[in-house]
Amino acid sequence: MVKYQPSKVEEKSRNKWKNEVDLSVPGKKFYLLVEFTYPSGDLHMGHWFAFAVPDILARLKRMQGYTVFAPQGFDAFGLPAENAAIKRGIHPKDWTYDNIARMKKQFASMGAVYDWEHEVITSEPDYYRWNQWIFLKMYEKGLAYKGKTLSNWCPTDQTVLANENVENGKCWRCGSEVIQKEVEQWFLKITEYADRLEWPDGPEVDWPKPLREGQNNWIGKSEGIEISFQVSGIRNQVLGTNRNPKPETRNQIIAYTKFPETIFGVTYMVIAPEHPLVGQLTTDEHKKEVEEYIKTSQKKSELERTSLEKQKTGVFTGSYVVNPVNLQKVPIWVADYVIFTYGTGAVMGVPGSDVRDFAFAKKFGLEIIKVIAKKPDDQSPVETAEDVLEEGWIVNSGQFDGLATPDPAKGKMMEYLSEKDWGKCKVNYHLHDWSVSRQRYWGTPIPVIYCVNCWEVKSEKLKVKSVEGKDYSLIEGDRYAIVPVPEKDLPVELPYDVDFAPRGKPPLATAEDWVRVKCPNCGEEAMRDVETLDTFFDSSWYFLRYLRYVLNTSKKDEKLPFAQDLVAKWMPVDIYFGGAEHTLGHTLYSRFFVKFLKSIGVINIDEYAQRRVHHGVILGPDGQRMSKSHGNVVNPDDEVAKYGADAVRLYLAFLGPYDLVAPWDPGGIRGVYHFLERVWKLFEAVEELSGGYGNEARIVKGKAVNVKDAKRQTLNETSLVTDKRLTIDDLYWMHKTIKKVGEDIEGIKFNTAVAAMMEWLNYLSAKAHRAGPAGSSSHPTSSTKSSSHIGDSSLVGLRALDGTPSVAVTRTEYETFLKLLAPFAPHITEELWEMMQNKKSIHDESWPEYDGRFVKTQVVTLVVQVNGKVRDSLPVKAGIDQKEAEKLALASEKVQRFLGNKPPQKTIFVKDRLINFVA
RNA sequence: GGCUCGGUGGUGAAAUUGGUAUACACGUCAGACUUAAAAUCUGAUUGCUGAAUAAGCAGUGUGGGUUCGAGUCCCACCCGAGCCACCA
Predict the structure, then answer these.
(1) Is A48 left (phi over 0), alpha (psi -120 to 50) or beta?
(2) pLDDT band (50, 70, 90) for residue A2
């Protein structure tokens, strides 16, 4: 027999396969989705882990008779393409498409079933026109709006970043420190969906708990109360803020709190430096100080502001507010530990029961009042941070004294404040609206036109002012009407010739011919939006785009981004593989999109994936993240050249649980390669190849096994098995492994599935070894390690059902083995399958079914314990009752020794498992 | 500080969900085959006492608890990872 040569086998096998899926076929569907990839250049080991391993499940599902749809595409817009253009003068488009071509070739070497026929490339006008369509729908519904706020700004990439893309105060792409800059840009009102995006306790879909909790924390729903504090000394001035522009905010500062029950402990008020009232509240003698403070805090980067050892800073404004509950006058301070974008940007300072307020009060010598105590009569002063309590008993709070908090004090206080009209219950979210404008080139153009003329006409007609960001946009001081591009004019195509060099202006602004456009509304000169959409917009719905047409049918005249009948049939995705790093970004955004698309009636699902599975990370052999600078990159192409794609796939499946973060182990892959070689060689031991074909082995269903004495008796009287050459042990191993491998793949436990096949192989090899090439075995009766736990296998295991010695591996066994291995190692199994003289592809075979009766052994090992300690183990017939077990166990000399010849006081019996005597 | 996972041999990890702890693999050691090496095959491999493939004791981060029985459940603590975080 020729040596196993992966490179030869793999190319040959791959040429046999076709992966395109006809989405219109009836029957059981299985939509397997893996996060599509960014076309960064070459496939690395992470791609193999992410794509080749889920293919195991795809292949199993296929063999189980499902129509498996596992489409692929590229998340092709994004910064690296543009940076390559800046650095090396290659156009982003050319760079991207070159990479795509190269990566697709590399993808092929995985031998996976991914379908490229429905491919999605987000940088195709054909794709991003639907981004634009969705954007316009959102605009129509008021979910896309233009706003001017302080935003995360990356000075290196010259673009705004969403909150989710700021990691520890640094840009997720380039690692530069993010600064806060006031920028006008488009937002999506994801906050309107905050409630719907919150995960319930027992969700209907199977998504990882850490993800669900993470998203809920990020959404950060908090129920509290907004309390109004009268500003002392200012009369009848409108102190409206752009957050609360209501008449009732006259003379008032509104603070948000979750702990209203501590209001008697308020000794000061703090507002954020960005708070619009700062100017009005600052008295002349504090003006200089306050202005300076605001300046320095603005200069601080996000990083400094949040990580500077929580050292509190702040200044007094000179003004005071009055605490409504006790009419105490308390000073108003400005401090940057208050976050303007959360709540109302104003906080009541309760140093007696909040550690941050305590630190602030200590530093600036402000009064500290105890309002929560360990005991109702405790009046000891609050002196250290340990004395600051959030729960306990209310003290020094008038009629509320003596109540326990949080319950019932919190509720009572809420009621009281609402009744007096001093406070209003309010739900706040940590989640912010999603900023989607990017000041970059390689993305979806925002389908909006700005027209001065339209605004002038409109504002003449309109007697009322419109809302900035909804109707008009301020550009260099002029008002422009926001005119959405009409649907018929989509897509707004990205111009090819632009100047990419960052110069503080979006690159698209340099394409003047493109920018200048006739207003679709009035026909006058107008201009296009020169920014592009965040690429997370692209990836928020791509899984629907895969479902746009049935193979070989017209793709034209699309009315929607997808075919509704196909979506109805194929959604939701059955399993979605991806990285845990997308917990707060991509997966949250795409849930939002799906809920939005449902709200406009074009789809009818709440969650888009039935199950979500995270993959782990393959580190370099040194345990560091693989990177060129570490010099620890393991190139999958090299490994494939050395060991073959099958071995790489198998190793990635075997190295541990799928979500494991573990280093690449060069020894590990040699181990699985060795396994494949043994599978290859076992071909020679298949009985029919040495003894001729025929006598087809097949298991048929029949009556239940009933063995009186499995230790001694073979099964030749049963008619369960037509192939009498299979022993009861053979059947046990085969059926047990079928069960285990199938269940483990579905449970995403690939490592133990592989282990189970290794065990069976060990069993089969030992069997072949005993039989020997010409019956000359060197170990005729030694029971193998693998089979020993069955019990007395020297008697049971070595005799076939017809009583003759088992001689070799049967065709049934070997072919079943190949089928189980096929999803993991599709190439080698295909080749061996052909060598077994099968005509069809092994991947078109159906997955073997196991027979539960064979999964159970006839002989089980009964563990015998005395006082819970294992003292002996006996091979016994399966299913024996307690009486019989006791008799056998008590006969054991070891048991007698530990029982000391006294009868046990109590006996615990677990059928087919153990018996425990309590002395 | 909050949330979510984890902590088992020299290493990656298993453990039928409360029932023989360490499956499978790597590594190491020994043996066979070789002039030799590689490859392959066979065996050993949790620690301690023992000549032992006899027998026993200990053993899943630490300390307690529940139970006939705990890696698994409960309580307290220690350590590590990931995410979030002056969110009032």
Answers:
(1) alpha
(2) confident
| Pick from A8, A50, A84, A25: nearest CA to A615 | A50
Inform me whether the pLDDT recorded for A812 exceeds 50.
yes
Chain A residues 880-909 with Cβ under 7 Å of strand B are: 894, 897, 906, 908
A665 touches strand B (CB under 7 A): yes
* Cα distance between residue A124 and residue A128, in whole Å: 6
Q: How confident is the model at residue A786 (pLDDT cuts 50, 70, 90)?
A: very low
pLDDT of residue A183: 82
- Sheet of A67-69: strands edge to edge? A67-69, A29-34, A575-579, A612-615
A870 touches strand B (CB under 7 A): yes
Chain B positions with an atom below 7 A of a protein C-beta are 2-5, 11-16, 19-21, 23-27, 40-44, 55-57, 68-70, 81-88
Over residues A626-668, the pLDDT tens digits come to: 888 888 899 999 999 999 999 999 999 999 999 999 899 988 9
- Per-residue pLDDT tens over the stretch A733-763: 999 999 999 999 999 999 999 999 999 999 9
> Is the pLDDT reported for residue A77 higher than 80?
yes
∠ CA A125-A127-A131 to the nearest 5 degrees? 100
Local structure of residue A611 (DSSP, 8 states): B
CA of A614 vs C1' of B82, distance in Å? 13
Residues 213-232 in A having a C-beta less than 7 A from any atom of strand B are 213-214, 217-218, 220, 222, 224
- Please answer whether residues A144 and A135 qualify as being in contact, where contact means their C-beta atoms are separated by less than 8 angstroms: yes
Task: Work out whether strand A392-394 and strand A404-405 pair parallel, antiparallel, or are unpaired.
Answer: antiparallel
DSSP-assigned letter for residue A50? I
CA atoms within 13 A on the CB side of A813: 34
| Side chain identity at residue A477, one-letter code | G
User: Per mean pLDDT, which range of A675-679, A761-765, A799-803, A818-822 is the poorest?
Assistant: A799-803
Contact A393, A402 (CB under 8 A): yes
Q: How far apart, in whole angstroms, are the C-alpha atoms of residue A55 and residue A756? A: 19
**Which whole-number Å values give the CA distances from A871 to A266, A692, A743, A791, A867, in the listed order?**
69, 49, 34, 17, 10
- Give the tens place of pLDDT for each residue, A88-139: 889 999 999 999 999 999 999 999 999 999 999 999 999 999 999 999 999 9
Nearest nucleic acid nucleotide to A789, CA to C1' distance: B20
Q: How far apart are CA A591 and CA A249, in angstroms?
A: 36
Q: For position A159, what pLDDT does the model report?
A: 81
Residue A460: exposed, middle, or buried by beta-carbon count in 10 A (0-12, 13-18, 19+)?
Answer: exposed
Cβ atoms of A907 and A883 closer than 8 Å: no
Q: How far apart are CA A481 and CA A185, in angstroms?
A: 15
Q: How far is CA A62 from CA A86, A293, A816, A894, in A?
A: 45, 66, 16, 53
Q: What is the DSSP string of A856-907?
A: S-SEEEEEEEETTEEEEEEEEETT--HHHHHHHHHT-HHHHHHHTTSPPSEE
For residue A868, the cross-strand partners are none
pLDDT of A542 reads 98
Q: Give me the pLDDT at residue A578, please.
A: 96
Spanning CA of A761 to C1' of B57, the rounded length in angstroms is: 37
